[in-house]
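TICKET #2291
ISSUE: user wants both folds in one file
ATTACHMENT 1:
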Amino acid sequence: MDGSEPTEADAWPQAPGRLNWTGREAWADAVARLVEGLEAARVTRLCWITQDPLSWPWEQAELLERLARWARPAGRQWLWLGTDFEPVRHGAPRLMRWRATWDHRVQCLAVEEARLLEGRECLLAQGLGLIERVPGPQVQGRICTDPRELVLNARWIDAVSQRATVTFPVTTIGI
């Protein structure tokens, strides 16, 4: 093998279950692998739940290019659900440029009651998988591909979304 082909360890887990990860690099790798699998799995909805948006690896140019390829076909949506996305405006310029281009595919919702998010930091690609960061000082978490758990998480996101409000416009209009 010349190293250009992905190995089994590089692929998104196919069997239902869980896989744990530890460290910022492993987290970024898990996010990249999930995003890489979006097109092939024909995922139409991606859900990002965060209370700390700048901790995510969204500033990687290659990751944003993959998201752009995924977002091109009609019917794709990326839901951002969190308490405050304003730090992204100044702290994540690449993600803001991506968002400005793909605003018609992004829906940002603010949850006023942080407790509704249960302290969760996760990315759900419906029908493909879930990446969840475990709260705490260490960067660690899990990847889940269990279909039942994916459905339960999608229902939880829908329930929280119903109690959220539209927020974080790409541009603000002054009066």
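ATTACHMENT 2:
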Amino acid sequence: MKFDLSIVVPCYNVSSYLDRFFKCLESQLDESISIEFVFVNDASTDSTIDKLRQFAAVHNNVVIIDKATNQGISAARNSGMDIARGKWVTFPDPDDVIIGKGYYYLFHNFVAKDASLDAVSFEMDIVKEKDYKFSSDLRCEDGRLVWEGTGYDFFNHYHMGLCSTLLYRLDVIKQNKLLFENYKVGEDAVFNTKFELKCNKVAKVTSEIYTHVLRKNSITNLQSPSLIKERISAEVDVARFFYGLEKASSDITFSNRCLYYKKSFCELALGQVLRSNISIKEIKRFKNTLSELNVTYKPIYFIKSKGSIKARGQILLISFPLLLLVVRPLYKFIIRDRL
């Protein structure tokens, strides 16, 4: 059986969020749009799989992939995408919130009216978990079409966003054999860029149908030394991806866009380096990697930079690794997450 939309949901130890998320999914159901829910349980150690099976018992449009070993969010999305039967696909996270009948609204107001679309980009809200109160009575905001064009032009004009803020034509993904890279962070950026560059037509709409809930114990915010090193490696790899696109293009607008993303991920990696406990030798190696990507941080930039005090402090510290040893404890205290 074919569906209009496949909602692929990677799940790892999210049992406490699933009741809320199930309410969001049920709000999307309507006779005029066929939806399948594809859950990928990534070897959760809590009661996630039990709750997924309970949900599947009362819905005939649910598929569950139950992995024996934890492989990460990218592998989970790839597994779900591989068996998805929808014409369109999207990738919400189960600890986030789909507002009202958001997907239903997008289908009836944009997708159904233009068969040539390959993607629809929509808006999202970002809130801290401690500040968020869920209500099933929320309605998604009415939106309007603000831009449409090729995926190439979309990349040049708009921030690509998370993969949870796009509806994707699944045949574009499968025909071009696109997969999520196995990164701890930044996998959305690489996947979305590859996808957008294959799209003939993308629509940008103002509808805010998704709330990204920042939680303190998410993988992005955990601060173990091993995870920090993995994030540094991933952010450098993503920066290297954009550097490759930047070098290969003769289009100044496109190259500058790639340069922007390259620098952004280098700065994210830099922030991780400065909050980590890696050695001076490793910091020097990181500086050499930045040089290979044509990104340099010299002391004079501390004065010339128009960035924040935090950003300029990062530049200064990476320029003087020995100074970093002295001020690192204070730096880590100042920038630590306060979710």
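RESOLUTION: both attachments delivered.
EXTRA DETAIL ON ATTACHMENT 2: Residues 307 and 313 are 10 Å apart (CA to CA).
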